[in-house]
Amino acid sequence: MNIRNLLIYPLRLILLVLVQIFLLKNLALFGHAFAFLYLLGLLLMPISMRTIPLLLIAFGLGFIVDLFYETIGLHTAAATLLAFLRPIWLKVISPTGGYDDLQTPSFNQMGLGWFLSYSFPLVFGFSLMFFGLDQWGFGSFFSVLNKSLFSSIFTCLLAILVQLLFFKRRRGI
Fold it and tell me: Which residue from 37, 47, 169 is spatially nearest to 108, judged by alpha carbons?
């Protein structure tokens, strides 16, 4: 990892958490779709990143968001689950030749179809964990499933929009 990336990843994480806390905290579409844009910081970590540092970063991000949302560990648990599932899911959707170690799993580098097949299941798993814990189990299964589905769609659409607006595009596109 070069010096530029050592600065970019932490700054991106800080910026996404600040946006989550100060702009997206009270945003809910129709009471069912919530935005978890800070997850984009975890999703865009380099493919070559090891699991333990990713788990620690996810735990820290979730903990910070929990402090401001007063959700008592919901974001921490769900973000840590996302970080745990990410390397497993990357292996499942790995192309035949594998990944380049320096690649970031972004919309701009990998394409829309790949990014959606990468991010949506991970964000959906996060949402299931988050809303399942929020409802104290799966007593209201359809409510949890409804909120998880719409929040995942909303979060992935926001993640693509943010990447289109603020990230450098690859040459030749």
Answer: 169
Contact 103/47 with Cβ under 8 angstroms?
yes
Number of H helices, E strands in the chain: 7, 2
Q: Residue 14, SS3?
A: helix
- Give residue-wise pLDDT tens across range 87-124: 999 889 887 777 776 678 888 888 889 899 999 999 99
User: Cβ distance 107 to 115 under 8 Å?
Assistant: yes
Q: What is the pTM of this model?
A: 0.89
- Helix H segments across 23-111? 39-43, 51-69, 74-92, 107-110
Residue at token pair 């499942």:
92
Strands 33-34 and 28-29: antiparallel
Rounded Cα distance between 84 and 146, Å, is 24
pLDDT 10s digits, 31-79: 789 999 999 999 999 888 899 999 999 999 999 999 999 888 999 999 9
Q: Tell how far CA 160 is from the center of its chain.
A: 11
Q: Residue 3 region, left (φ>0) first, then alpha (ψ -120 to 50), else beta?
A: alpha
74-92 and 51-69 helices cross at what angle (nearest 10)? Answer: 150
What does the domain layout of the chain look like in residue ranges?
A: 3-166
